[in-house]
């Protein structure tokens, strides 16, 4: 069959063969236990108990797996997926390389929990330089990194890691599988939050691990079953429903980010602008080769917390909110959460509003912020 393009793939991802009289996407199946065959027990049907088995979840996993190009297991949140992956793969005495500038709670988990279990944690900036990978069990890359938006060269780092016998996982949250396919770029595993652009409606938490290797995915499945970090059926169904519009949402978000990046680049009252799609951005050379589309997120500095407050107060179309990738444009002053960004640092996530409206609103709000 001819390979379909992104929009088509999203609309059809994970859907069962059509059945007359049935919906395109079957409704959520709510069950803790399922009926068992009284003689054969759980051996003859896939569904026995809700923690390991749920058909709504399996359809979502088929969908995300199709988009990533591998097998997929979904989790209750991105953090559950990442910590689950780390605890599945790492043993006392192992060394893991994590991004120094990536999602802050992952670093906190590493220093609080992994280090306490006797795992050696090395932090490397996403843009490099990376330490030698000899003796390393796992290299986790986050690209583009949240919130700084630096980019890691996945094929080059995967080659180096594999030569040293290390595994490579890529956090694909910011890019989504339409923006970048880490498994095709040489990564062994993808891990991500589906809470952000993947599902895009700011109404659920989700995470997933994807891989082409059953040897890697089977222990992740076993980990999820024993720890129980599964999403509920309704969230899985909402996520699957939302996937159909991923291509459309990303197209508008990327267009909006491009327009805002060009606006912000011209403003003397904005510093530190980062967007990998800008030709002058340090991440652009690698991003333009390995990414299939640019993210709807950009970051910049307004100098201090007060000015960020005035900007958000004046903006009608930019809501103060954390997280990113949703339909509504949002901005987050990251330092308010206690991470290590400067006080005026803003991560702005473009929604799907009309570009002219957004550009006018941000222009007016920056003028009003002084
Ligand atoms: C949000 C995020 C996570 C964690 O996802 P949750 O769904 O909030 O648990 C992990 N990695 C990155 C890059 C994120 O942005």
UniProtKB/TrEMBL annotation:
Signal peptide positions on this chain: none
Assigned protein family: Belongs to the trans-sulfuration enzymes family.
GO cellular component, one term: cytoplasm
Keywords carried by this UniProt record: Lyase, Pyridoxal phosphate
Modified residues (N6-(pyridoxal phosphate)lysine): 196
Record Gene3D superfamilies: Aspartate Aminotransferase, domain 1, Type I PLP-dependent aspartate aminotransferase-like (Major domain)
UniProt EC number: 4.4.1.1
GO molecular function: cystathionine gamma-lyase activity; pyridoxal phosphate binding
A Pfam family: Cys_Met_Meta_PP
Cofactor(s) listed in the protein's UniProt record: pyridoxal 5'-phosphate
GO terms classed as biological process: cysteine biosynthetic process via cystathionine; transsulfuration
Species name: Micromonospora deserti
Name the record gives this protein: Cystathionine gamma-lyase
């Amino acid at each position: 069959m001819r390979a379909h393009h992104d929009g088509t793939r999203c609309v059809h991802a994970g859907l069962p063969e059509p059945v007359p009289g049935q919906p395109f996407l079957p409704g959520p199946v709510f069950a803790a236990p399922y009926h068992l065959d009284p003689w054969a027990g759980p051996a003859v049907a896939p569904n026995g108990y809700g923690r390991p088995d749920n058909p709504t979840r399996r359809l979502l996993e088929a969908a995300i797996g199709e988009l990533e190009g591998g097998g997929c297991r979904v989790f209750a949140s991105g953090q559950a997926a990442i910590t689950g992956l780390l605890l599945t793969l790492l043993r006392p005495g192992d060394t893991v390389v994590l991004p120094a500038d990536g999602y802050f709670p992952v670093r906190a988990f590493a220093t609080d929990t992994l280090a306490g279990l006797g795992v050696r944690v090395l932090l490397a900036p996403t843009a490099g330089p990376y330490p030698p990978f000899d003796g390393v069990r796992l290299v986790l890359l986050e690209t583009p990194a949240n919130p700084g938006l630096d980019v890691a060269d996945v094929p080059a780092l995967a080659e180096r890691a594999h030569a040293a016998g290390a595994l490579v996982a890529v956090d694909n949250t910011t890019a989504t599988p339409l923006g970048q396919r880490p498994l095709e770029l040489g990564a062994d595993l993808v891990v991500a939050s589906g809470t952000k652009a993947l599902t895009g409606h700011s109404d659920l938490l989700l995470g997933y691990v994807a891989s082409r290797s059953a040897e890697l995915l089977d222990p992740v499945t076993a980990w999820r079953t024993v720890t129980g970090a599964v999403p509920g059926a309704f969230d899985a169904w909402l996520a699957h429903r939302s996937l159909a519009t991923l291509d459309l949402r990303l197209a508008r978000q990327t267009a909006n980010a491009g327009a805002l990046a060009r606006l912000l680049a011209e403003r003397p009252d904005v510093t530190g602008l980062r967007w990998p799609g800008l030709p002058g951005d340090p991440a652009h050379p690698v991003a333009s080769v390995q990414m299939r589309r640019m993210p709807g997120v950009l970051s910049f500095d307004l100098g201090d917390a007060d000015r960020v407050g005035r900007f958000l107060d004046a903006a009608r179309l930019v809501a103060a909110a954390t997280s990113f990738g949703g339909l509504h444009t949002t901005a987050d002053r990251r330092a308010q959460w206690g991470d290590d960004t400067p006080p005026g640092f803003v991560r702005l996530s473009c929604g799907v509003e009309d570009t002219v409206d957004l550009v006018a609103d941000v222009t007016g709000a920056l003028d009003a912020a002084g």
